[in-house]
UniProtKB/TrEMBL annotation:
Annotated segments matching region Disordered: 178-216
Protein name: FAD-binding FR-type domain-containing protein
Signal peptide: none
Lineage per the UniProt record: Bacteria, Bacillati, Actinomycetota, Actinomycetes, Streptosporangiales
Species the sequence originates in: Sphaerisporangium flaviroseum
Pfam families, A to Z: FAD_binding_9 (PF08021), Methyltransf_25 (PF13649), SIP (PF04954)
């Protein structure tokens, strides 16, 4: 669901916008496709990013120069794999190769000299690891030109995946499926990253990341995987702006694919070709706010809406098939049975009906080195599993484990040349029980490098991820496990939590 914020100019709103931007940068870097790992958050403030990343299965070490910020982070993240520590960013010490992700938003501009700090963050990335940085140039901030920061990263052996200096910080709401964190409590200083002891705090009094003359920078860099005797092509990077296409989709046809799945084919009306590079990319559908007749579309390359836009309903949907020549987009709606707006709309969708969209976002990156593929999911993930299976090369070993209500749902996963293990849930509510994990535990997985993708209820996915990484011993870059939905809080107390 989208996160809606008021459009006032209060300190809390500005803090929230900067938090949203930090989480957006991590999402754009593809952190949502990683199965946890170790993450360093440098200049952690009061711990909102650390909390969000810990809830995405990362083990987080948070650093800040301010003891009060470190105390607030440890308090906010109590019970989660987060450790906050006091460190002066000017003399930052991080373990070399110690992290899969090193993140810092809105801290570098408080340092008069940032090259040593950037160099330390670069050296802290493990092979395949990411550095995600944001800072502000201009105004009352210290300037650090992007090309200089990128030069330091490249000197340390990293490749630049993204470098832009036009990031806007403003109040807006993000697309469904984005990494989200809790709102700031009144009085938090989330918009004021702790400066290094001895910095002139007065220099930054009243400084704002959206003040006239300022430019906000976002840089994403990656440390290449170590070369081996086997020359293996690297997976394509998932780093790209979102959305790269916005416009209107018009219903061409709608049919009942199975008792719980409805197929809707759209025509792209007023936008160019969708930027689809991988199977199972997701598109965000946008319905008008109550009382409005048309959806308001976001800006290209930035999920930002015009001032005063009311709360619109959005939903992420897998692109089942896409015909670039005709502009036809095939999607499958799982009918949750919860009278949700998307399900109700899909039930009544008729040729000529229209809906806004922004797209697309990568949820699967093909690994050309994988010798076999394992796909795991419930009905919400079946369209993605089907799209991925269709994109695999002929002769590739593919195994799918799918939990559905009954045999009537098999048609949604048409995979004649794949090994499919069906689990029939029956009348058991979705997301309850451990049937998916039990079947996966019983699989005799092939040898060699694999690629595993899983999607479903978040608690189920957490437990599956732990099994695959800890017990099966698969590498983190072989596993992508995504929480597609969560059991309502009213039911969570009755569901056994995954083992830790």
């Amino acid at each position: 669901m989208p996160v809606t914020q008021s459009r006032t100019e209060s300190r809390e709103d500005h803090s929230e916008a900067m938090l949203d931007s930090a989480l957006e940068a991590l999402m754009q870097a593809g952190v949502h496709l990683r199965s946890g790992g170790r993450l360093a958050d440098v200049g952690c403030g009061t711990g909102e990013v650390a909390l969000a990343m810990a809830e995405c299965e990362f083990t987080v070490t948070a650093y800040d120069a301010s003891p009060s910020m470190v105390e607030a982070t440890n308090e906010r993240c109590a019970g989660l794999p987060v450790s906050a520590r006091i460190q002066d960013p000017r003399t930052l010490v991080l373990p070399e190769g110690g992290y899969e992700v090193v993140h810092s938003s809105w801290m570098l501009h408080r340092l008069g000299q940032a090259h040593d700090t950037v160099r330390t963050m670069a050296r802290a990335t493990s092979p395949g690891g990411l550095v995600v940085l944001q800072w502000t140039n201009g105004g009352a901030m210290y300037d650090h030109p992007p090309h200089q920061v990128c030069g330091v990263l490249e000197d340390e052996g990293l490749e630049i995946l993204l470098a832009r200096d036009d990031v806007r910080i403003e109040n807006a709401y993000g697309p469904a499926g984005a990494i989200t964190g809790p709102a700031h409590a009144p009085g938090d200083d989330g918009d004021r990253p702790a400066h290094a002891p001895g910095d002139d705090g007065a220099r930054f009094a009243g400084a704002s990341a959206d003040a006239p003359g300022t430019r906000n920078v976002r840089v994403v860099a990656r440390r290449p995987l170590r070369s081996s005797k086997l020359a293996r092509p690297a997976p394509r990077s998932s780093v790209r702006a979102f959305p790269l296409s916005v416009g209107t989709l018009r219903v061409v046809s709608s049919e009942r694919l199975s008792p719980l799945m409805r197929r809707v084919v759209f025509q792209v009306v007023d936008a160019g070709p969708l930027p689809i590079e991988e199977p199972a990319e997701t598109i965000t559908l946008i319905w008008p706010a109550p009382g409005a007749t048309r959806a308001v579309l976001p800006e290209l390359k930035r999920w930002r809406f015009p001032e005063g836009t009311g709360r619109q309903h959005t939903v992420n949907l897998t692109v089942r098939r896409y015909d670039r020549a005709s502009g036809l987009v095939t999607t499958d709606f799982f009918m949750h049975g919860d009278d949700g707006p998307a399900s109700l709309w899909a039930c009544g969708a008729a040729p000529g009906d229209e809906v806004g969209f922004g797209g697309t976002r990568v949820h699967w990156v093909t690994d050309p080195t994988a010798e076999w593929t394992l796909l795991i999911g419930d009905e919400t993930a079946v369209p993605s599993m089907a799209a991925i299976l269709e994109g695999l090369p002929a002769g590739h070993r593919a195994i799918a484990v799918a939990e559905v209500r009954d045999a009537g749902e098999h048609v949604a996963l048409d995979a004649p040349h794949s090994e499919v293990h069906w689990i029939h849930r029956g009348e058991r509510p979705p997301g309850e029980g451990r049937a998916l994990e039990e079947v996966v535990r019983g699989l005799d997985l092939p040898s060699g490098r694999g690629q595993v993708w899983a999607g479903g209820e978040s608690l189920v996915i957490q437990s599956l991820r732990r099994h695959l990484l800890r017990e099966r011993g698969l590498r983190r870059d072989e596993v992508c496990a995504l929480g597609y939905w969560s059991i309502p809080r009213t039911r969570r107390a009755t569901v056994s939590p995954p083992e830790t």
